[in-house]
Records
---
Amino acid sequence: MALSERKKKILAAVVDEYIKTAEPVSSKAIAETGNLGCSSATIRNELAELVALGYLEQPHTSAGRVPTPAGYRLYVNELMQRQKLSVEESEELNRKLNDRLAVMDTAISDIGKLASQLTNYPALALTSNASVTVRRFDLIYVDANTFIIVALLSNNDVKNKYVHLPVSADRSLVQKLGTLFNASFTGITEDKITSALIAATERAADDTIGLTAVIAAFCIETLNEVNSVTAYVTGENRLLSQPEFRDPDKAHKLMSYLSNGGYVFPETGSEHGEEVRVLIGPENVAEELKDSSVIVASYDAGDNTKGLIGIVGPTRMDYSAVAAKLGMLAAGLSKRLGGGEAPPEGMHNKLIIKGDDRS
Amino acid sequence: MALSERKKKILAAVVDEYIKTAEPVSSKAIAETGNLGCSSATIRNELAELVALGYLEQPHTSAGRVPTPAGYRLYVNELMQRQKLSVEESEELNRKLNDRLAVMDTAISDIGKLASQLTNYPALALTSNASVTVRRFDLIYVDANTFIIVALLSNNDVKNKYVHLPVSADRSLVQKLGTLFNASFTGITEDKITSALIAATERAADDTIGLTAVIAAFCIETLNEVNSVTAYVTGENRLLSQPEFRDPDKAHKLMSYLSNGGYVFPETGSEHGEEVRVLIGPENVAEELKDSSVIVASYDAGDNTKGLIGIVGPTRMDYSAVAAKLGMLAAGLSKRLGGGEAPPEGMHNKLIIKGDDRS
DNA sequence: GTTAGCACTCTCTTCTTTCGAGTGCTAATA
DNA sequence: TATTAGCACTCGAAAGAAGAGAGTGCTAAC
């Protein structure tokens, strides 16, 4: 059953008002603000029906109305006016983003911080790298006991490890291993690094001191680490400024859930573009999030890497503003990091070489 | 004026009890638990004097007593029995520490997490590197537009940067710059890297494409970053489990202060060993910490690097337990990372090459 | 110097009352 | 038929009142 136009307007007004005040919304308040030409009595009738339909609820008989998750869902899907950021706002956002990117190496967690600041909610950020491989190995010989492994990954990330051995290795072994690793360990995913392969390499290099194993272990560890999806959570404390988290126990529960980084994103349905997804209350899988909402935007971080950036807050949340901001942020990130379009002059993957790319 | 033995005993009993219960302590409770052979009436007299001396206070006339910062100070300095961790406890702690160190690269922040878990308070961790320099440069030529800068620092940390240039550089330039940087940029602190030095290097290398500047910038940035003191804060949410932070506003204030990482440690007086310092309430410099306590332990992270690890909590804190744990942790870290004693077999600076060093 | 005894103080809890915002329903109205 | 004014009713929040009890300070006896 489709809702009448007036019901929709009223529902939207309730949600808007509730988002603003965090107090149950009365019929009178709607009559006054939501310029539909009818009295509070009429609105009361409509409200009663909206309750019956499951979009609203009453904390108690003589209280105003509060949106249910279903109500928020309808609001998000159809009713809310997609908020366009003003020119100034989006300019400011872009400037901030640029500032961040200019100094960033730690990338993801920093982006999360930015999102958290912009929205005043806790933010989570993560990248999921489809299948990063090592593109190139370099072994730097420091002294007989010491060398550095440098691995350039397929996503242009560089990882390194300082290795100090209790026994000495001669230069030729290090060199030989460098060649061998570049021949057999590049371009393959972590699961292709079998113990057979390692053993074969060890034999081929005449390695009697176990150096091969060390490098292989580094390789496995690095790929594992890069490919694993870990969420960076920042700004948990911002929860405390929300009225629904004035109860310390409730706040503590959610905050420690977030801090433990166990967050799993539900499968993203579509694969393209900077889609913004909204998960309202019970739509979340995790028990701890059942009465919170999550908004995530995905972006293309280039080289098969997809990034997600999201915020967590009470179900009573300014969905349109947050979605707009996150969308903007994700779009900005895609543009700068993504593979599709050419990156701006003088800039490549997470890295600014020189100059200033602010528009 | 020196306190009588009995007064000391009573004060200690008040603090112990208050730490346990978070409730004002009554004369009766002390008479029962603190086996001094006298009645509650006598204790009341003593308590009144302790209040007059400023070691205790009363929330209101007919309430029990609560320690003042001065009371805690005396307690920490003289009264508390330095808690020895049981053999099992210290073994467990050492095991956990080893587990952490075995997988750690991100070092400091992980140590903080461990401290936070062990104590159930928010923890902060930082290292202050006196004057790290670059020990060795390597430039890895990937292709004409791309190369990797690898810098081995004097603290055995390795930093790298992936660089993609809009113009191409030939191999010989990269090689030449490698030599030049190793000659002039190693062993010097960041402030010694002058623009004159950079210009001279650029000339000497016949660098027309600005590569020298890029490497120098990386160098400056890296040294700056490594030498700058940033505190990693973890476990802020644990504050919420403390009764004194049930007020969300109070909790929020402190938590966002901590999250902003602006924490400055007061000068450490003595320079040697794994000293544990306690800062009680108003002894803290930051306004936000005036009614919290901070306990920090310093450790020697080797190569001129000093590390600090601490926790933040209400003034009502189990000082002896926390101090014991942090001290233990710091000692463990000094032993593993520090320069003094020889590191355990097969292990060098933050890095386990192979094998298992659990005792 | 110590202690029993007791009046006094102050908070905390519980109960009651009051107030008012907001509803649901009914009857009148366009 | 849809809307609205009017009004009784409900329920929570705030304010007050009363009582309980924990703990003190003081006094007088030991």
---
Amino acid sequence: MQVPGSAFAENKNVRSILEFIARRELQPGQRLPSERELVKLLGTGRNSLREAMKVLEAMGILDIRHGSGIFLRKAGFQPGQDAAIWLVVHKNEICNALTVREALDLRAIDLIPPRDYPAVERRLQETLDALEGVAPVGEALLDHDLEFHNIIRRASGNELLLNICVALTGNLYDERRVLFGRKDRVELSLREHAQIARAFGQGDAALVKQAYAAHLASTRASIEAVYPIPDANH
Amino acid sequence: MQVPGSAFAENKNVRSILEFIARRELQPGQRLPSERELVKLLGTGRNSLREAMKVLEAMGILDIRHGSGIFLRKAGFQPGQDAAIWLVVHKNEICNALTVREALDLRAIDLIPPRDYPAVERRLQETLDALEGVAPVGEALLDHDLEFHNIIRRASGNELLLNICVALTGNLYDERRVLFGRKDRVELSLREHAQIARAFGQGDAALVKQAYAAHLASTRASIEAVYPIPDANH
DNA sequence: CGGCAAAAGTGATCCTACCAATTTTTCTCC
DNA sequence: GGAGAAAAATTGGTAGGATCACTTTTGCCG
């Protein structure tokens, strides 16, 4: 866990670079002028410019490639309007990350309008079917699992919720790898996924939530079995 | 919304600073050696060092104060083990931010052990009492409101949940300012806060949750009245 | 046309010098 | 001796130049 403070757009140079990108309407993938040119265009020193560049690189907004140039990775961040959250999640807070993800995942279900259930069921079934012919190996399973849950998160219509869950899942990388290396756990997960998809097909909101809650509980139990929580919430 | 991507610890200089902090076992609030000294200690140039410093400052790990020094804000971040999550919340996603915050706030209540209810009630009452003598002006009210909810989030024992909620609240700065400028809304909020505190005092979990849910719903209604949601979730 | 080497362009690092804000020390005056 | 102001020292902030390392482009040669 830890901190944030979206206090970042305080940096004058960072802001001026973002404004430059917005003014030129640069698109993702496009190259920015070279450092030596930008220095003239923005009227700043090369050091200050580079410091700001490094911050934007760490944020994932810029992609700096030695020898070839600086490229825009993500477009249109507005320092004045938008907010940036930088969370530092400590490894010994697996339990907290799990709890947050569960809370958001369960809420996502409530947000899905019942009329979308058939479409959700179809998409869920597709990812399950795609896994049929494939040998159940680590990477493919990790991808399937993430995509399965993302379908539901996306159906909630809340992209922020989706992004937070994805970020937290990325934080649980090691744990998930270990989990999906166990044959019994994999089979259980797939059975539970199928059950969730079926519940969507039946159009029963209560059943969906129950099946999803059961899957979350079972997942948590498996993780805690492998990684005993040193200091549980209470 | 936008992206996560915790890819950051790639930076060699950032890592060496973090390792330095870990090696010296520096605690939050402590001062690091001056830039010119660190340059000698880490065997790097001042520019490269500063670039890394700026990244860590943007992440909220360091606090750089012109003229006085560089201070550690958050301790012990381990590049290999821990994860940094960067979220960008767009301004046109007020509705999504509200939804996420509500989901986490409600979950926080479930996480509070009933035996802690009396302590929570006492702390909530203190912030309410502190507001008594004071003229109900904007800033003081914003602070009270944030602290009131943070007491509950803190009581959940989940610091990650607390941090996300705080960040999202910061993102709703404008909306909250407008809201707390309205006398009727302020009085309603304070009444609801008092009711929540009372529910904790009575030790009734269901009552607490009901009162809290009512407060969240009422707050959302007020915000939506002022800022009509262009594209509601559903 | 293809391949290879040179040249140009770009970011990476280091250095020096100086500016700006803060803290500490020193000195003056009462 | 104490208080306050001035001076000095410390610290981060900015600028620019020189050079290294990597990539892309150019152009020569076969």
